[in-house]
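INTERNAL AUDIT FORM
Audit reference: QA-55
Scope: verify that the stored structure record matches its stored sequence.
Auditor: D.O.
Record contents follow.
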Amino acid sequence: ILKCFQFFLSPTKTDGSSPDPTKRPHVINHSWGSTSPNTNFNSAIDALHAAGSLQVFAAGNSGSRCSSMGYPGAYEPVLAVAALGYKSTTAAYFSSRGPVSGASYVKPDVSAPGQQITSCSNQLTGYRQMSGTSMASPCTTGSVALLLSGKPELIGKVAEIKAHVQKSATPIKSRDCSSKSDHPNNVYGWGQVDNLKQLA
């Protein structure tokens, strides 16, 4: 995984030669994580953020219990994404929730559709219906890419991008999972990602 982070930071040719940080992506999706607290990747995430590349993580699929955020999604600087149910603004039953043990910040950060999503597959027709926060996080990563296409002045400004995505999300209120307020909260974060509001 750390070798992948290194490649993200400075992409190379397939033989590993000619590293070129100018080809670094502006945003990267991560549909992986651990259910156990893990800080092994924090410094690599920090390096990518410092270089202007936002890291988006799936929240995890250990819901509906509280304090079930996956790692590194539970790490404050990343944009962690919860899953909404099929054609719904209610959290999918499997979507991991906060709070993060010992932390004062809200997790997840935002929510996006994550149940019965048509996705690529290496089986049969090449497509299949899949569910998970690993469906919601790439949806959000694509949303960030659209945002940067429409507002290129945000490129490289990781903290501003994250704040913009949060503030433009459509609120979904909840006091579940020891949320200190109904918005943002430890189930939906700041709410459902909204492409149109982001670009307004």
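Auditor finding: record pair retrieved intact. The first strand starts at residue 27 and ends at 30.
Action required: none
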